[in-house]
Design brief:
The protein has 409 residues and is an alpha+beta fold. The chain is 51% helix and 12% strand. The radius of gyration is 21 Å and the shape is globular.
Length: 409
């Protein structure tokens, strides 16, 4: 690609002011040019809605081709469990295998299928809230939104309660391994909990094969079958790992951003209090209005092609800045308005087509219950200080999110 034909993208995603509010900068980029070249990422970055959506639908873009090549032999030798886990990951398998896995898995993760888990999700979330004071300051990020997603996944998989700490350690270590630039010693420290977690999941798979359970996600996954084709044990273990990584962060960060957006738009918070059924819609509107990323979303060219007068080579990354796209006035004339009553025609922030987020329905249900339960317990909530933004290189995380709450009307 001729990088001289498009302007270079220059910005600091780690700038504290960007973490707090990236949208003025993104609007300037979007207005000045439709596409930039991002030297750090090694590919073009598209900012406008029509381009981003077209690229998300483009079959010539897929996962990073280097991932499908497998792990180096030295890594396999040093960390065989982790290598096996990742080589069966939905994000690493070839497109044909990906299509097969999605065909088997989709029925277990549809909106109706996940509704059976609502009582468990509600019990976990309300159990956390019961530990909070009726009056005072709570850190909603570390003590609430960070806590329930992993416990929900453990519950719907019916992980035995005595193994929950081990399962949570497995999740935390897995999430750490996806941080770009993780020092080798920190990566190595994550491996023992990962190996123990994988062994635990294998034990539970074996037990559940012998003793199936009703309304149990693990049993449903074990029984998932299409023309006698079933998930293998390595695929099942890898799927659980993928749920822990993807299902935890989206819900955690998305719920934080929803609460922050509601507090920054008090008229919308008042609407939600009056109509709690809008909680899921509030979560969707927040993912459109205030996504939690720092950097654009990548896909990789499976063949060379030209798009919007930009030549893209096979294997090259193509970036879509969805945070910009969903604030594009060509998408919504009032895109900068936060409106939890907005009727969305889709949930593109969860992906499109074969790359649509597998756990989207579960994440939306969790966020819905988390928002409804928090607001029901506390008729009064307000910021008790500015959120403390973390230094995660990919996501705008809130290390601290202090709220002053009161159970008195």
């Amino acid at each position: 690609m001729m990088t001289t034909t498009i302007p270079p993208l220059r910005y600091d995603p780690m700038d504290p002011s960007y973490a707090k509010d990236p949208y003025p900068l993104l609007a300037r980029f979007r207005e000045e040019a439709p596409v930039y070249y991002w030297e750090q990422g090694g590919g073009p970055v598209f900012f406008r809605y029509k381009d981003c959506i077209a690229l998300m639908r483009d079959a010539r873009l897929g996962h990073d081709p280097t991932l499908g090549a497998g792990f180096p032999q030295e890594l396999k030798a040093a960390y065989p469990d982790f290598a096996t886990l990742r080589e069966n990951d939905l994000f690493m398998v070839p497109s044909e295998a990906h299509a097969r896995l999605r065909r088997l898995l989709n029925p277990a993760f549809g909106p109706r299928a996940v509704e059976v888990h609502r009582p468990k999700v509600k019990a976990i979330i309300e159990g956390l809230l019961e530990k909070f004071p009726l009056e005072g300051v709570i850190d909603v990020s570390s003590d609430y939104t960070r806590q329930y997603p992993v416990r929900v996944i453990a519950s719907v998989l019916n992980i035995p309660p005595n193994h929950e700490p081990e399962f949570i350690a497995f999740a935390e270590s897995l999430i750490s391994t996806i941080i770009p630039g993780l020092p080798p010693e920190r990566f190595a420290a994550c491996m023992p909990p990962v190996s123990r977690g994988m062994a635990l999941v294998r034990e539970i798979i074996a037990d559940r094969r012998a003793h199936p359970m009703e309304d149990d996600l693990m049993t449903q996954l074990i029984n998932a079958c299409d023309e006698q084709d079933r998930l293998s044990d390595p695929e099942l273990v890898s799927l659980v790992a993928g749920l822990l990584v993807g299902g935890t962060d989206t819900t955690y960060h998305g719920t934080n951003q929803t609460l922050l957006s509601l507090l920054q738009n008090p008229e919308q918070l008042a609407i939600l209090r009056a109509e709690p059924s809008l909680a899921r819609n509030a979560f969707d509107e927040t993912l459109r209005y205030n996504m939690f990323g720092r950097v654009p979303f990548p896909r990789y060219a499976t063949e060379s092609f030209e798009f919007a007068n930009v030549s893209i080579k096979r294997g090259q990354p193509v970036f879509m800045f969805l945070m910009s796209a969903f604030r594009d006035p060509e998408y919504l004339p009032d895109a900068n308005v936060y409106d939890i009553r907005r009727q969305h025609t889709g949930t593109h922030w969860f992906g499109l087509g074969p790359h649509f987020c597998l756990g989207a329905s579960l994440a939306r249900m969790e966020a819905e219950i988390a928002l409804q339960s928090l607001l029901a317990r506390y008729p009064k909530i307000e910021l008790a200080g500015e959120p403390v933004w973390g230094k995660h290189p990919i996501m705008r995380t809130m290390d601290k999110f202090p709220l002053r709450v009161s159970a008195s009307a």
